[in-house]
Amino acid sequence: MWTRTANSVTAKILALVGLVALTVAIVASVATTTGASQLTGPEKGVILLEQLIEDYESNGMAPDDPTLLNLVKERERLQEIANGPAPDPPDPERVAEILAYESDTPPAWDSGLLEACEGGLGTPDWPDGTTLRCVSVPQDDGNVIVAWLTDNGTAWISYQIHGGGLKAIWTDIPVWTDLAQAEFEVEGEEMRVVVNGDGNSFDTSIWRELIKRDGETIS
Amino acid sequence: MSKQVHESRGAPHFWHVYFLVLALVLAFWYFAAIAARAAASHASFNSSRSWYVDGNYDQDDMLHLGCDTANKHREGYATLFFGAPIRVDDPGGGYKKGVTRFSATDVPFEGDPMSVKALVKDFIEGYDTCADPGEYLVVGVGVSNCSIGGGNSECPGGQSYKTNAWVEAHGAKLAEIIDDIRVWMDPYYLDHAAVRGAWDMEPAWASYSKTDLWMDGYEDGTLWSLLGNYSSDGCEDSRVYNSAVDQNCANGYKYSSMWHLVDQHVVEEIPQIYTESQAIRWMRIEEYGNHAKGNGLYFIGVMAGEGTSNDTVHKAHEELWDELNNPAGHSPNHASQSMLGNGTLLFAMGHGLHDH
């Protein structure tokens, strides 16, 4: 009888412990899986600012430092916003309207240079006197790929779409490492451009261009 | 009868055990998931795109880019780079991309639709318009130290107007822009964005003193920190741990210069990590700070560079993380890098203005 009573009490305790643990586990797991994604923007901003404040304080910034006080003030402002009404969700029509916009403005510096470069290797002058070397390679689809190399250690790649303006698609490739490469996509096809230089002295350097399309060298 | 009672009490006893086992399994699963998340924290981070803003893109372009950025669910930190500090009326100053429209003092650009301020506002408006609830981006408004004086042939500078006073005033001008944008953002755009100055500091592009001077100008003008998108060109990159030796970088810079430009200014550092050697350099500079100055650096993310010869943003993130958290090599008081939760990939504009 005593054993049976003791077992019963133990079982009830076990059941109670089990239920409490189960409740905690379920609540905690739900909070874990949904909590992070439910943070609002201002709440993320608050977290970011708290980390910054902690970093600056550990770096020895005085509590009354104006920068620190500014961050604290911003944290309070974001907390205030976080406690306010939720922002409106995106307006699909406005989003579509913005995304539908396509710039057709070519970089001005490219427009006049293509003509000088067309037909192969050319050396047009940059408006500020920099000497450029370039190669233009017409593509079957009507586009023109142009690789440019400056005498100050940079190169870039442009392309012209169906007789329109040129757009820079790769700028400031460092070529002092002897080899610069760029990969880009033109109308869904992967292109690869490799520009070789022998260093910074491009006046006397030998450089060559290699434009591949689908693995086949075309120039 | 007695036996029947005993059996009827036996069934609940079984459920007690079942509840306990189930609860323990769930609890174990929960805590295992927490542990796994902590262990994998360096592999999970926000990824964004940063952009060179070339000279001819207008406000609609930036509105579009901001919206596209939000539609790609980019969060964390992203910088719009406006190039070298020059005067807008300087025809020879545009040898680096970006800002032919950024002026320190003498050419007003208030109300100019092509101004830096207007372009950044449109980017933020585009992001805010298209962002889902909870998406949040810190937008850096970036200039470089190219050509402000004492740089290499890439950034010779030399214009007579680039006096010390002008360089400092240019920093202050960016500060003014940041403050103005921040005021404009409140209250409508703070749900999705924050704004900071940003600084493409590259040792080879300007002398240390000029660079430091520009930063003084910025800090005198605003209380907002700079995103430090620094390069580490020329810095010693052998993998040595726990060293307080002040090694050299390019253009007369040393580890101590780099440390100063991060730690002694109000900077949120997001270094350029295009290759593994650059991750090693920043580890060395951080270690130098720890051992020589008693204060290491704190990195909030990495900036990778577009291109096949460069790291992807994930690889860059992993490389810096690995260098900073190698338990074999670091002193016990090595700085926490809990904020290395952001990566950004620098893109040239002209991809049809699509984030991709």
Give your account of this protein's structure.
- The complex is a heterodimer of chains A (219) and B (356).
- Chain A is of the alpha+beta class and 219 residues long.
- Chain A contains 5 helices and 8 strands; from the N terminus they run H-H-H-H-H-E-E-E-E-E-E-E-E.
- In chain A, the strands form 2 sheets. In chain A, strands 1-2-3-4 form a 4-stranded antiparallel β-sheet.
- In chain A, strand 1 (132-138) and strand 2 (144-150) form a beta hairpin.
- In chain A, helix 2 runs antiparallel to helix 3.
- Chain B has an 8-stranded parallel β-sheet with strand order 6-5-4-3-2-1-8-7, covered by helices on one side.
- Chain B is globular.
- Chains A and B meet through helix 1, helix 2, helix 3, helix 4 and strand 4 of A and helix 1, helix 2 and helix 3 of B.
Compact description:
The complex is a heterodimer of chains A (219) and B (356). Chain A is of the alpha+beta class and 219 residues long. Chain A is built from five helices and eight strands; from the N terminus they run H-H-H-H-H-E-E-E-E-E-E-E-E.
Q: Which keywords apply here?
A:
A: 219 residues; alpha+beta; 40% helix; flat; disordered C terminus; B: 356 residues; alpha/beta; 8-stranded parallel β-sheet; 8 helices; 8 strands; globular; disordered N terminus
Topology readout:
The complex is a heterodimer of chains A (219) and B (356).
Chain A: H1 2-35, H2 41-58, H3 66-82, H4 92-100, H5 108-117, E1 132-138, E2 144-150, E3 154-160, E4 166-174, E5 179-186, E6 189-196, E7 209-213, E8 216-217
Helix pairs in contact in A: 2-3
Chain B: H1 2-39, E1 46-52, H2 59-71, E2 76-81, H3 116-130, E3 137-144, H4 164-185, E4 193-200, H5 208-221, E5 226-228, H6 255-263, E6 267-269, H7 276-293, E7 302-305, H8 313-324, E8 342-348
Parallel strand pairs in B: 1-2, 1-8, 2-3, 3-4, 4-5, 5-6, 7-8
